[in-house]
Write a structure and sequence with these properties.
single chain, 657 residues, eight-stranded mixed sheet, 10 helices, disordered N terminus
């Protein structure tokens, strides 16, 4: 993902204006007959033309600055899969008296009937609002009379008091676009950092001075009038193993850095980390909660009674907090009230849980810090300057000797030092009460492992009986433990597992260390299966890939312009040993494989052999890295394709006369 920063001020050359909105309702034959093959033959809908403009005005009623955004789009729909483009959601935000509003909504559907273009205008009664949360309202409407081949068109205006983030413009969305244009008017008294994110470059951009575009207290102010254009934009297709799409979509972002005061002085809006550090450390729902070690001083003797070093102390405190404060599923970097209340209620948000953890670690005289971060679905935080609204999560960091451990007590089934996958997103900012804050890498090198070992024998009746033992650690163990806990008991979990395995019957089971999360999770299953097909001429055909088979390639794009983020490295080993009756020879088998990814990024090994009437099949699948850049995508795609193709092959055993 590329980010290009475009810093601008008013000392700009003047160009002739060329940006303007297009007329509503002027549908042409070219619109109806647009050939989607020019962009994407698989597209269900295509944006024919899109225009938006943003400017700052002075609200007549409040006298405050507000951002006015106007949007207008025309879309061609090709089939039923594209009908969803006619369902429109416009989110608006509110905070006390500061509220965004939507107005001037206009929408219509155009269909070709007997060679004529027939317009069906949307009734205003079709517009309604829905409160999504305390801070977000959705304005919703659906365009009428949608058919295969329809062209839809709509426009609206949005007024917002949020001028810090000048309206973001997404050139890239879930459908291709022929033409997208964004026009902004930025008064000379405001300076914004402007960044172009994503893979695709602008087709054109021009800047000119718009004279007296704004008046404040009767004083005329010039504006920078900037037009951004992108053409023939592919759809952004989300695929497995990615973080927030906003990290990678081609889009223009604006963030206010400073503005000019009426007396001519410039007031900084973008703060330094030194300023933010002070605010966070003195904030009553963050920094002051980190200092509440007195809540735990009297409890330390009982919590630490079986510990003999700092690491065991930290682990004991971690386990204690996991049991004392249940996460209420809310994110945030601030305590909802205070950690004393969260402890009394035995419930709180992410910050309540982990600020309690930090305070308790401090009560044991351990070096504990807070880390604020942005979760994977929330996007990456700005690394150039602090934008506190980028952060939506808080974890703990404890330093013991020359090692540091990142810990999150919201998940009872996670071992010490393993963060939830949602936290593994670029970098976090460490907040230390005595030192300046600093960035820390949130990627993990800790490998998730799982091994499957099957020892069984083939009976004369064609059934295989034996044991499968599974040992897992890290995220693999966490995933299995989480799945088990969804059910009322391990027995119910095994019952559902048995139902999902049609050719295998679980006769007995034992699962060890479900709640002992620091230990290896062990599953032992006594099984019976009938996978053998007897051809009647002394031959047995057997597909050995019934444990964690790879049936589907997760990578199917022609080109992927963003990284493959697995979250963590992984290692999987599968060993099958099946003792056969009588004398058999290995007539056919899947091709032995030893393939790898570039730069030692991973490998797949497969070996099948027959030794003394024992069929042995051994597989290793390893991914050495957590993140693979976009240029590695073709290799990953081919890697999976070769494995899938090979796993279709059977083992053929032939009786020796």
């Amino acid at each position: 993902m590329k980010t290009i920063f475009l810093f601008f001020f008013l000392s700009l050359c003047v160009f002739n204006s060329f940006a303007q909105d297009f007329s509503f309702g002027q549908i042409t034959s070219d619109d109806f007959n647009f050939d989607r093959n020019k962009l994407d033959s698989n597209a269900n809908a295509v944006v024919l033309k899109e225009f938006g403009t943003s400017r700052i005005n002075i609200n007549d009623d409040t006298g405050q600055s507000e951002l006015v955004f106007i949007y207008h789009v025309k879309i061609k729909i090709y089939n039923k899969e594209g009908y969803g483009q006619a369902n429109i959601l416009i989110p608006t935000y509110k905070n006390g008296s500061r509220e965004e509003t939507v107005s001037e909504i206009r929408a219509a559907t155009f269909n070709s009937v007997n060679g004529k273009f027939v317009e069906t205008a949307m009734d205003k009664k079709a517009i309604f609002s829905e409160n999504k949360s305390k801070y977000v309202t959705l304005t919703k409407f659906t365009l009428p009379n949608i058919q295969d081949g329809s062209v839809i068109e709509y426009s609206f205006s949005l007024e917002s008091p949020r001028i810090f983030n000048f309206r973001t413009w997404e050139f890239q969305t879930d459908i291709p676009k022929v033409y997208s244009e964004y026009l902004v008017f930025i008064p000379a008294i405001y300076n914004y950092n402007v960044s172009l994110r994503g893979y695709y470059k602008l087709s054109d951009t021009k800047t000119e001075v718009s004279k007296e575009c704004l008046r404040i207290n009767g004083v005329p102010i010039d504006c920078s009038k900037i037009t951004y254009i992108m053409k023939n934009i592919p759809a952004f297709i989300e695929e497995e193993y990615m973080t927030a799409p906003s990290n990678f979509k081609s889009a223009i972002y604006f963030e206010l850095t400073d503005w000019q005061m009426p007396d001519g002085r410039r007031q900084s809006y973008t703060k330094t980390w030194k300023d933010v550090d002070y605010e966070l450390k003195t904030e009553k729902t963050l920094g002051k909660q980190m200092k509440r070690d007195e809540l735990f001083k009297d409890l330390m003797p009982s919590i630490l009674k079986n510990t003999d070093d700092d690491l065991s102390k930290a682990k004991a405190i971690y386990e204690y907090i996991k049991k004392q404060v249940k996460w209420n599923r809310y994110y945030g970097i601030y305590s909802e009230d205070n950690i004393k209340k969260a402890l009394s209620l035995h419930s709180g948000d992410v910050a309540d849980v982990n600020l309690s953890l930090i305070a308790a670690l401090s009560a044991a005289n351990l070096d504990a810090e807070a880390v604020i971060l942005s979760t994977r679905e929330n996007g990456k935080p700005n690394n150039l300057y602090p934008v506190i609204s980028d952060f939506n999560y808080l974890i703990a960091k404890v330093n013991i000797g020359d090692k540091s451990y990142l810990i999150d007590a919201t998940e009872p089934l996670l071992p010490f030092g393993l963060l939830p996958l949602r936290c593994l997103n670029d970098k976090g900012r460490v907040i230390n009460l005595k030192k300046p804050s600093y960035w820390i890498d949130l990627t993990t090198k800790q490998k998730s492992t799982v091994t499957y070992s099957m020892d069984a024998k083939l009976g004369a009746d064609g059934k295989i009986t034996g044991n499968i033992v599974t040992n897992s650690t890290g995220y693999e163990a966490f995933s299995t433990r989480t799945e088990i806990k969804k059910y009322s008991s391990p027995d119910e979990y095994v019952e559902k597992l048995d139902e999902r395995l049609p050719n295998l019957k679980i006769l007995k089971h034992e699962i060890r260390n479900i709640d002992s999360v620091e230990n290896i999770l062990t599953e032992i299953y006594q099984i019976e299966m009938s996978p053998m097909a007897n051809s009647g001429n002394g031959e047995l055909n057997f597909n050995p890939f019934f444990i964690n088979p790879i049936r589907k390639n997760p990578f199917n794009l022609t080109e992927r312009t963003y990284p493959v983020d697995l979250g963590f490295p992984s290692y999987q080993r599968i060993n099958l040993n099946i003792t056969l009756p009588g004398d058999f020879e290995l007539a056919e088998k899947p091709k032995d494989m030893a393939i790898g990814l570039p730069n030692s990024g991973g490998k797949y090994l497969l070996q099948t052999q027959m030794i003394n009437n024992m069929l042995s099949v051994s597989q290793i699948l390893e991914f050495s890295d957590a993140i693979y850049e976009a240029d590695q995508y073709p290799y990953l795609k081919e890697f999976y394709s070769r494995i899938i193709q090979n796993q279709k092959a059977d083992v053929q055993l032939k009786k020796i006369n």
